[in-house]
Fold Nickel/cobalt efflux system.
Amino acid sequence: MISALFLGFLIGLQHALEADHVAAVASIVSGERKLGRALRHGAVWGLGHTLTLLLLGGMVVLAGEAIPEIWAQGLELLVGVMLVVLGLAVLRRLWREKVHFHIHRHADGVTHMHAHKHEAEEGRHDASRHEHEHPAGLPLRSLAVGMMHGMAGSAALILLALASVTSTPLALGYIVVFGIGSIVGMALLSAVIAVPLGYTAGLFTWANRALQGAVGVVTVGVGGTIVYGITVTDWGLI
C-alpha cells in the first residue's frame, strides 16, 4: 500500500511537468514579479486539479467504470481551447503595454533610470500605477484552469488507479497523494518560471517582454496542437 501511494505521489510530481500544464501555468504567472504570488498560483492550480480528480475520480472508482473515451477527448479539446485563450491573453497584454523610461535624482546626487510598462489606453503617464498592490485572495483563474485540467486528465489517472489498485479506499488514497504531488510539482515549477521573469522585470525590460512573448506563443502553440490532434487526427473533422 505504501509503495502504491508513494508511486502516486511521484507520478503526480511528474504529471505537473506535462506540456499543457506547464504552458497554462506559465501563461498565468508570466505577469507576476513576486515569487510568493507565483507559488500561490501554482499551488492553487494543483488544488483545483486535485478537487476535480477527487470528484470525478471518486465517482469512477466507486462505479467501477472508466470515463468514455469520447468524453475524455472532448475535455482535452476544451483544454486546448483554454490554452489558446490563455496564450492570446498574454500576447494581448504585451500589445497593450508601453515601455518608457524615467530618470530621477536622489538627494545624495545618485541618479537612477527606471523602465516602466503601462497599458496604452489613455496615452499618458499615470504615476499612481507604479505603486499598487494586487488582492491577496485565492487566485480564481488558477483554480479554474486547474479544475479543467483535472477533468481532462482524470481518465488516464483512473485507468491507472483501477489497473493497479484493487481496494477502493486505496484507490481514493492514490488519487489524493497524486493530487498532492501535482500541487507540490506545480508550485515548484511556478517558482522556476517566475524567477527569470521577476529578475528581468527590474533590470532588462526588453528581455522580460521577450520571455512573456515566448510564453504566449508557446501556450497558443501547445493549445493549437491539442485542438488539431483531436479534431483532425482523432475525429477527422477536416
